[in-house]
Fold these 2 entries.
Entry 1:
Amino acid sequence: MGMPYALGAVRARTALGLMAPLALAGAALASTKVAATVGHDLVDATPTRLGELVVLAVAFAMTAGFNRLRIPTSTIQILVASVVGTAVAASTGVQWGTIGELAIVWVLAPFAAAALGFAGAKALAGVRGGTALGGGLLVVGCLVSFTMGANDVSNASGALVGVHVFGAHAAGLVCGAGIAAGVLITGRPLLDRVAFDIVEVDRTTAAAAQLVQAAVVLVAVSFGLFTSLNQALVGGMAGAAGARGRDAVHTSTLLAIARGWVTGPPAAFAASLIVSLLVRAGGGALAH
């Protein structure tokens, strides 16, 4: 919702109020493939409930830290890195083929989004940014909110599916409620960050970026290869703004965000490895 909020098509409180139920709906209705990938396709063994607790605790702590610093990072990449760190500590095999497929998607997604954003902004260059475009942008923001639920809920629901606490649909519903609460309680700082600190936007640029974000992530979700919603949006924004001229992009902010993407996964891997080794040394079983 950063783009429609930045351009005055919606107030911040209304934007968050729309995001929450739509993200819940996406989590409940369209997240089963990504939950199955997280729950069953990342490591060879079945994690114990203690092991999943370590993964989620580390992923939560890392994501909360980045949010506190107002750095949009990839919660999905942090989650996967935490899973790998715990698996290594437990001497459990990792499905490196799946990890490799995800890594390729993660690397390519922002560049693909940037290219599509650039092309989209050029194609929409003659469109006037009136009320109708603002309303259309809000509709696209609602679509992306639904996509967020479908894509990001696997960070938590995959763990519940992996240890057979819930089925995929029930896990999506329960964890989607957590996403909705997070949007309402802690979403405002990142909404401001995305809206005002990355690029100078007009409605045409914003529409191109938001459409690209929805397309890139929905394609990935349809194959069960979840990707970063933030990276798709920031890539689309940078490409669309670049079509208007280099001065529209806040390069320093973009580089700071890129550093968050680069440092997030290895930091999560290291933290998960250390915590898991301590738990294992204390006699805790992380996988079976």
Entry 2:
Amino acid sequence: MTEAAAFLFLTHACNLSCKHCYVSAAPALEGHMSPEHFRKILALLKASNICDVRLTGGEPMMHPNFHQYLAELNAMGIRPRLITNGIRLINSHSTLAILDSLSGCWISVFGLTQEQHQFVGGRAIKDLDAILAFAGRHTSSKSWIGISAVLTDVNKVALENFIDVAHKHGVRKLRFLFAEPSGRAGHSGAVFSNDSTSHNVASTIADNISELVAKRNFDYVTLNNPFDLTREKSRFGHKSCLLHDRRMWSFSPDGYIYSCCFNIYKHDHIVSNINDKNAKQILLNLQPGGLFAKKCEGLSKEFWGMDKPINIYTCPISAIEIKTNEILK
């Protein structure tokens, strides 16, 4: 059994209203994880021997206690990973201290060009070039920081320009995710279905990325693989829901426990609550596909409001490793 991991959804709030957001986070939303819930989660993680923690939201840095929570995790010996849009991180007076407290940080960008990036993220988003420059600058100072790029309007010229600019800025870790030109992870998500045409489209993009990064020195490049969620080497066709080969838990701001990040806030996918006296036993003993773990429906027709059904046994965190020069633990 692969070691377990936990996503902490610290808040519903976000300083953006991205078109592709699967939790529909927005600035007007309220609902932060309370200190009481946070500490109960920490106790549960410790009792369940879960040390692989990823902070997300919404925008996790929108939480008023973000710095305090980060310090408490570090005090427990856990250096979490951060998934952020980078706005508050770039503007922070304590950027270096935050990065030093993390084992990894992905900054999201929402297209390969400034036009697409701003179309999806909105006017409040940081300029694409500024984000790439920030990531490259801190990569050179030995921080584990990478760029997570949504593939919206994809063509080889835009892909090559993006990779070239990222490389020139010093970015050495890239992650690519599929989405529609609108930003919504809809029809393009069908590249992970059993449709051979869709597989061919995704294979072409993967081959283009492979070709482009081979000419440059990157440490880590993946197609739809946040951090090291799977070490599966096959290109396509594998069923890659995290519960297929590991235990992974998501904790909502109000303390509910879900079996997968794409199940978050779906009531019928709740596994337990941190106040449940059986929560520890569930996390320790639940096997993939077990009684409490329903299959992720993150790419179902109903979830995205799509016009056609797609394979719900796969999801956007499927992985195609393009090139890896380092072992991520």
